[in-house]
Amino acid sequence: MVDTSLLSSIAKQMMTADEVEVGGERLPVRRTSKQGLRTVTFTMGGRGYAAIEQNPEKPSRWGGLARSGHQVVQFKDVVTNRFVAVAVDGEAKEYGGGKRRGQPAADRG
Q1: pLDDT, tens digit only, all 109 positions of the chain
Q2: Among 15, 28, 56, 84, which lies 20 to 30 A Cα-Cα from 63?
Q3: Measured at the alpha carbon of residue 92, what is the angle toward residues 88 and 93, in degrees to the nearest 5?
Q4: Domain spans of the chain?
């Protein structure tokens, strides 16, 4: 489970500033080498995460939102390399609210 209020804060900060403050620590917002997308790595609950600005050229729902002017930030767990949450215009939501793959309906909590 992730802290969506912290993710919202990080998303807002990284889209408007050159650094992000997380738990009193200032972290630099960097740019990816190819598309120049904003990114910042941080720790939350003892785990490493990366916040990555959504590439508007991607043919996905999130890419479409970015193309239409929304600020979309994806959050990835750096150990598992899986996306765990998304923030659209500063409002973060954790992934995993729908069906879980590979589990029968009776086993889902």
Answers
A1: 889 999 999 999 999 999 999 989 999 999 999 899 999 999 998 999 999 999 999 999 999 999 999 999 999 999 999 999 999 999 999 998 655 545 444 444 4
A2: 28
A3: 110
A4: 4-96
